[in-house]
Automatic annotation (TrEMBL):
Belongs to the peptidase S1C family. It holds the Pfam family Trypsin_2. Gene3D superfamilies: 2.30.42.10, Trypsin-like serine proteases. The chain crosses the membrane at residues 34-54. InterPro entries: Chloro_Bact_Ser_Proteases (IPR051201), PDZ (IPR001478), PDZ_6 (IPR041489), PDZ_sf (IPR036034), Peptidase_S1_PA (IPR009003), Peptidase_S1_PA_chymotrypsin (IPR043504), Peptidase_S1C (IPR001940). This is Serine protease Do. GO terms for biological process: proteolysis. Its EC number is 3.4.21.107. Residues 295-366, 382-472 form the PDZ domain.
């Protein structure tokens, strides 16, 4: 018998539309056919389970926030110093972790196959609201969630534990591991979730799940660790490995939310349920999650600038330098292999993730103050973030960052199908904006993370290969005023920007 599993977010139908901020545009044609890259991730197999509109979920968010505020004060009203027997370790664990759990929701388009009267099948696209959960891992507002929660969502709306709302930007993602990092907009600091470990879990120990189950925000459920090291196939193209199996009640909308131990520490990220079963759900172990997120951030940083060092965590704390690029800014700053970085600017460093996060907000060309230990002595130096166009980064990424001021990734097949269906075109794809360089041409024209670049001048940017060919074109190398086309919230918009002049080089 074959078992089937599904990601645990869900979608609700909506009819709302949003106002445009740019001029609506036609899609340009041109540039040769090129490959389009994408990874398919199932977004809930049982769409029919959601039967309430988004407005109901929003009402519930206010109710849930009020309930949590009441709960936070009620426990202090006990007579004298006596602690009620009702205040169990589970209550304490939820109270400790809940403020760092956020609810994510936003519009996306899904496609389903519907049978026609003639017996043939047709793809049907509909606009839906996706729901999911995330956990704050850094006080500046960096949040980890599942990739399938934010995939193809153009505006990520967030409800915090206290009921306040904001939006978030997608910073980095890893579709193959179904993880993403987003950043909350607004002033911090934000409360971070206490971290546990998944390498010492015991079958039978109690666990707690918190999430946006069916739109009921901050729903908490309890269970046990049912098994460890489960390998779970989701569909023909995706599978999860080495998961935690739990009996805690996990439902659509819990995707990306925390699985906690009884101390209120995150030990996993909830990701999937067994279809048709009860009390069989799965979470990605937190040690695996943080390793993947660290790699995601490092790749993101490398696209923007080069520091020129690699390191590892060490038992005594800090981030130990294990390798340096000859002539790189880290080496020029006086760092050597074996040095232990303990602080970057004002951030204390104990793990590779903390080091990666500490430079995530840095801009190319910025000098970072680095405090490190060598033997028994503590030193301070400054390390420059050299723009990646002068380093060893991917040449297409370097050109895009230098000339336009953006980092991009392919939008994927789902975007292409949606565009062709909605606009009756034969479009080949686009490039999702994942970062915008401050002061660049893109920044001046208010291009933002989540927009999809469709074309420049009369050429389509349907793939990275297309973008490389466009940026190497003699006309573009002269830094013209270029017309650009983007998609934002399923609307095609255009504008004009002054591209940076490229230095004269000999093409190979």
């Amino acid at each position: 018998m074959r078992f089937y599993y599904q990601n645990i977010d869900t979608c609700l139908p909506v009819s709302a539309t949003r106002a445009l901020q740019f001029t609506q545009a036609r899609i340009p044609s041109g540039v040769r056919n090129a490959w389009v890259w994408g990874i398919a991730v199932v977004v809930i197999a049982a769409m029919g389970v959601a039967n309430a509109p988004l407005s109901s979920a929003e009402d519930l968010q206010s109710v849930a926030a009020t309930s949590y505020r009441n709960a936070a004060t009620d426990h202090g009203s006990l007579s004298g110093s006596r602690r009620s027997l009702r205040e169990t370790p589970t209550v304490t664990a939820i109270r400790r972790a809940a403020p760092s759990v956020v609810n994510l929701h936003g519009q996306k388009t899904i496609r389903q196959t519907a049978a026609s009267m003639a017996g043939s099948s047709n793809d049907v696209a509909r606009q839906v609201n996706g729901m999911g959960t995330g956990v704050v891992i850094d006080p500046r507002g960096y949040v980890v969630t599942n990739y399938h929660v934010v995939e193809d969502v153009y505006e990520i709306n967030v409800t915090l534990h206290d009921g306040s709302t904001t939006t978030a930007d997608l910073i980095a993602s890893d579709p193959s591991n179904d993880l993403a990092l987003v950043k909350l907009r607004g002033a911090g600091p934000f409360q971070t979730i206490p971290r546990g470990h998944s390498n010492d879990l015991m079958v039978g120990e109690p666990v707690i799940a918190i999430g946006n189950a069916f739109g009921y925000v901050h729903t908490s459920t309890v269970g046990i660790v049912s098994a460890l090291h489960r390998d779970i196939p989701v569909n023909e193209t995706q599978s999860y490995r080495d998961l935690i199996q739990t009996s805690a009640g996990i439902n659509p909308g819990n995707s990306g939310g925390p699985l906690l131990n009884i101390d209120g520490e995150i030990i996993g990220v909830n990701v999937a349920v067994r279809v048709g079963a009860q009390q069989i759900a799965f979470a990605i172990p937190i040690d695996q999650v943080l390793d993947t997120v660290t790699e995601m951030i490092v790749r993101h940083n490398d696209r923007r600038f080069v520091i020129g060092l690699q390191g590892k965590s060490v038992q005594e704390g800090g981030f130990q330098v294990v390798d340096l690029i000859d002539g790189g800014s880290a080496q020029r700053g006086g760092l050597k292999a074996g040095d232990r970085i303990i602080k970057v600017d004002n951030d204390k460093i104990n793990t590779p993730l903390q080091y990666a996060l500490s430079v995530l907000d840095a801009s190319p060309g910025e000098n970072l103050r680095v405090e490190f230990q060598r033997g028994n002595e503590t030193y301070e130096t400054f390390v420059a973030t050299v723009p990646s166009s002068t380093g060893s980064a991917d040449p297409v990424a370097s050109l895009a960052w230098q000339v336009i001021g953006v980092a991009v990734r392919p939008a994927g097949d789902s975007f292409t199908r949606r565009m062709n269906s909605q606009m009756q075109t034969n479009y080949r794809g686009g490039l999702v904006i994942t970062d915008v360089r401050p002061g660049s041409a893109a920044d001046e024209q208010s291009i933002r993370v989540g927009d999809v670049l469709l074309g420049i001048h009369s050429w389509q940017t349907s793939s990275l290969a297309d973008l490389a060919e466009i940026l190497q074109h003699p006309e573009i190398r002269q830094g013209p005023n270029a017309k650009f086309y983007i998609v934002r919230r399923d609307q095609t918009l255009y504008g004009h920007m002054k591209l940076a002049v490229q230095p004269s080089t000999t093409r190979r």
